[in-house]
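Thread: quick sanity check before group meeting

JM: Hey all, I'm pulling together slides for Thursday and realized we never actually wrote out the predicted structure for the chain we discussed last week. Dropping the sequence here so it's in one place. If anyone has concerns about the input, flag it before I start.
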Amino acid sequence: MRRFFLLSLLAVAAFAARHEKDIEFAKPGGFSLTLDASVPEGPGPHPAVIIVHGGGFVRGDKQTFVPPLFAPLEAGGFAWFSINYRLAPQFQHPAPAEDLAAAMKFLKQNAKRFNIDPARIAIMGESAGGTIVAHYGLTAKGDLKPKAVVDFYGIADWNLNLQIKGELSENAKQFLGPLASSAEGRRKASAIAYVSRNAPPFLFIHGTKDAQVPYEHSPVLCKALEQAGARCEVFTLEGAGHGVGGWEKVPAFQTYKAKMVEWLKANL
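JM (edit): ok, ran it. Output follows.
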């Protein structure tokens, strides 16, 4: 019954929210980074989600690939902030994680402006963005640590990725730079190297037919988190490929939206 209610809730289009675009949140080395914001109307402070887009580390922006996530978050009563970050090959790891840290700092400093609760900020990313939020979620310290992490089909372990696929993509090499050439370097850039019992709760959402980021990444990282004493969950979409945009065409895959909202409510 609760699942039916949430699915019905997500189908309603008219949710009152205030939208702002192209807000500059940082300027590393003179490179302007901006975000788009959606903040629920009404009393707050509201829980918030920072969204990190995909694009193979070399393309995309705050309005590509991730728009299917916007409406369910608004329906669930969350403020969301979709960010730009520096892309390869001009910028390499860990530049995107540094940009995510800058966004986290900006939102905490401007919590009253956006009517959000600075103690209830989650991070969410898909594909390259999932890779970035997983790494950041396990390495961030102190006040910049997120309350929760939602990882859509991110790469948890670059060595595992090489083992499964037989080679690293050109995009991966451009993103990792010198780290791509050794097992030690690839592990240094991998979220799985930083697992600890102090990790925030993780929700992994992954399709079993993902040809770009093998499904194995999500259960492997979740198992490592559980073994360390942290909390995590894998939400598996049987038969789903890569990308929430493609999932929009298959009604059976839409169950992730209700799960995402329900999980965030429980963990924020």
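AS: nice. Confidence is low (pLDDT under 50) at residues 1-14. The chain is about 35% helix and 20% strand.
JM: adding both to the slides.
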